[in-house]
Amino acid sequence: MSTRTVTIGSSVGLHARPAAIFVKAASEATMPVTIAKEGGNPVSANSMIAIMALGAKHGDAVVLTAEGDGADEYLDSLAALLATDLDAEPAS
Amino acid sequence: MTVVQGLGVSAGIAFGPVVRVGRGVRPPDTEAAASDAEQQIRAAFESVALDLESRVGAVEDTAAGILTATAMLARDPSLIDGAIARANGGAGPATAIDGATREFMDQFTALGGYFAERAADLRDVGDRAIAVVLGAPAPGVPPLTDECVLVAYDLAPAETATLDRTKVLGIITQVGGRTSHTAILAAQMNIPAVVKVTEAEDFTDGELVMIDGDTGSVHLQPSQETVDARRARNDRRAAALSHVSGPGATQDGKQVKLLANIGGVEDAVAAGKYDVEGVGLFRTEFVFLSAATAPTVEEQTETYRQVFAPFDGRRVVVRTLDAGADKPLAFADLGAEENPALGRRGLRLSAELPDLLDAQLEALALAAADTGADVWVMAPMVADAQEAAWFARRVRENGLRNVGVMIEIPAAALRSSHVLAEVDFGSLGTNDLAQYTMAADRMQGELAELLDPWQPAVLDVVAAACHGAGVNGKPMGVCGESAGDPLMALVLAGLGCSSLSMAPSRVPLVRFALSRHTFAQCQRLAYLARSARTAVDAREAVRAEVAADLASIL
Predict the structure, then answer these.
(1) Of B97, B116, B134, at which residue does a domain stop?
(2) CA–CA separation, B331 vs B327, rounded Å?
(3) Which residue in the list A6, A15, A66, A75 is annotated as catalytic?
């Protein structure tokens, strides 16, 4: 089982737009990926609602988990995505 | 004609008949369980998603993004599985969808801020799916045949995005906020909009309304003359305001800094784009109010850095934590008090819990050193010179150079020559100053007349505070709402206030008012106001004397 701990880079947290970008990216993984706030219960990375309900704000640490072939590669790219400011583009 | 007040979020005047936006149908109270509930639920959400996606091609980028995101919610496994679980537990399919939707909405609402405003998106998806299950028409905007003003509880993003701009003259919603989708999209589409109009619930189809998206006022059944007059006034105002910009000053060049009041990172980003000279009041409560434990120095530093960043090279006046028994903190509750307004609040709370203040000052100093903003720090609820000295020492020990006090207690205003000798500046909080001068509770709506900042007694107290500041050669500003009233702004400038802080949208009109009067004229207006017998007389006396080109656009 692989895990990555990453700090949320989006300035207003993991809300609608950043969450949508993340879910889209996570859905490309060939195995289930979960995301949790540090010390919290993991939720499926393919549910935007569950991810938004985490209420992860800018600077909060989240833990990504996956198991299977290529899990490390998927997690690396998802972690990099979460660390960037996905709100940098004009908000919708 | 009745006038009600909301929050103007998209500028312009709109006048037309009301068309109400249908609210979602509710599941029947005793909906029977269905053997094919899972199938029904999946099909309902899928049909909602397909319907939303089918409209993507017909709209612009922003709207398309919102439709796609809303469709994504309709395909969300947590929502679908949540509804199916409820149906498996014996709930009818529509009831199950409603329950699952509400469960997540509650979670979003509890998170507050930006997350809470996303609850409307979820409500829309849930309502659409329920309508499919019940075979009811989709909730939302009915087909429009004529020009109208839409009235809704809250417009769902998918609805706002697909509005027919040739028919929709204006938008009124009962709830919502400055950053809700309705606000953002209406502004982008140049449709005048007013949100948070509580009375909108009672507006009926066909009733004529006029909305002013600048001021947030909504007129019911206005006469054509009223509408024409308001339109003409707004045109005059826009023309007049387009000619003034930059730092605030009287006609003869006496500087009066024009600053913004803000209460968080989003406010800071928005205010940073305005033509303002900085921030005159940054309320820091939001950093603490939602937290279960005291926020760390690191957490606070990061937040303050984000607030300061848009004001590189400009001033930001920070008010340290202003909490009390009426807005208690989970980690700093001194218990209930008989009279919170007169209790251990503001600096008095910081005196009981100095560690909390020190952590905040340390974080402010770190963030200030990290950004190009000119950071000033002031304490709320300071009563005398000793308290001012205590606070000033702590602030300076943390390496922050400009320390000040709020003047909101009459005692501090009357003795401001001693109080301000201890610090570098003062800032009048006119709302609390009025409350304490008139002994009238701000929370008591019936006492609004006593709380009028035009009360001559309040103006006398302001004058005393300004006099004491002048004796020390220290700047005195105003950060209460009254600074945003152009007539009052002239009086305050005349009393000697050298900065005025307000909602950023109020700045242009105040800038214009100042530019049309000399300092001597402002002093005369202040004299007239203080010579009046009542608050109404004071305002009238000033209104009658101001420059004609200001009076014509008020």
Answers:
(1) B134
(2) 12
(3) A15
pTM more than 0.80: no
B193-241 pLDDT tens trace: 999 898 998 999 999 999 998 888 999 999 999 999 988 988 898 899 9
Superfamily for A2-83? HPr-like (3.30.1340.10)
Closest by Cα among B502, B462, B468, B461 to B485 = B502
Specify the residue for token string 């105003």: B478
Catalytic residue numbers of B read 181, 479
Tell me whether B305 touches chain A (CB under 8 Å): no
Mutation target to probe the B interface, by most B beta carbons within 10 A, among A47, A49, A85 is: A49
- How far does A35 lie from chain B, in Å, by closest CA? 14
Backbone angles phi, psi at B475, to 5 degrees: -70, 140
Q: How far is Cα B6 from Cα B406, in angstroms, rounded to an integer?
A: 29
- Its ipTM equals 0.85
Alpha-carbon dihedral angle through residues A22, A28, A30, A36, given to the nearest 10 degrees: 0
Tell me which residue in A11, A17, A49 faces B76 most closely, judged by beta carbons: A49
In sequence order, the 6+-apart residues with CB closer than 8 A to the CB of B493 are: B250, B254, B256, B500, B514, B519, B522
**Position B370 in a domain:** yes
The answer, for B31 touching chain A at a CB cutoff of 8 Å, is: no
Boundary (domain end) residue, out of B217, B239, B261: B239
SS3 B55: coil
Dist CA B508 CA B208 (whole Å)? 31
For B266, nearest residue in chain A (alpha carbons): A12
Write out the residue range of the structural domain in which residue B438 sits. 243-551
Q: B208-212 and B217-220 as β-strands: parallel, antiparallel, unpaired?
A: antiparallel
- Kindly state whether A1 is in contact with chain B, defined as any CB-CB distance less than 8 angstroms: no
Q: Answer whether residue B71 is part of any domain.
A: yes
Dump pLDDT digits (tens) for B311-344. 999 999 999 999 887 777 878 888 888 888 899 9
Extents of the domains making up chain A: 2-83
Query: Cβ of B306 and A43 within 8 Å?
Result: no
Query: CA end-to-end span of chain A, whole Å?
Result: 36
In tens, the pLDDT along A7-29 reads 998 887 887 778 888 998 998 88
| B298, B368: one domain | yes
Q: Count how many domains chain B has.
A: 3
Q: Is A25 an 8 Å CB contact of chain B?
A: no
Tokens encoding B494: 């005349």
B107 shares contact with chain A (CB less than 8 Å): yes
Distance from A70 to chain B by nearest Cα, in Å? 24
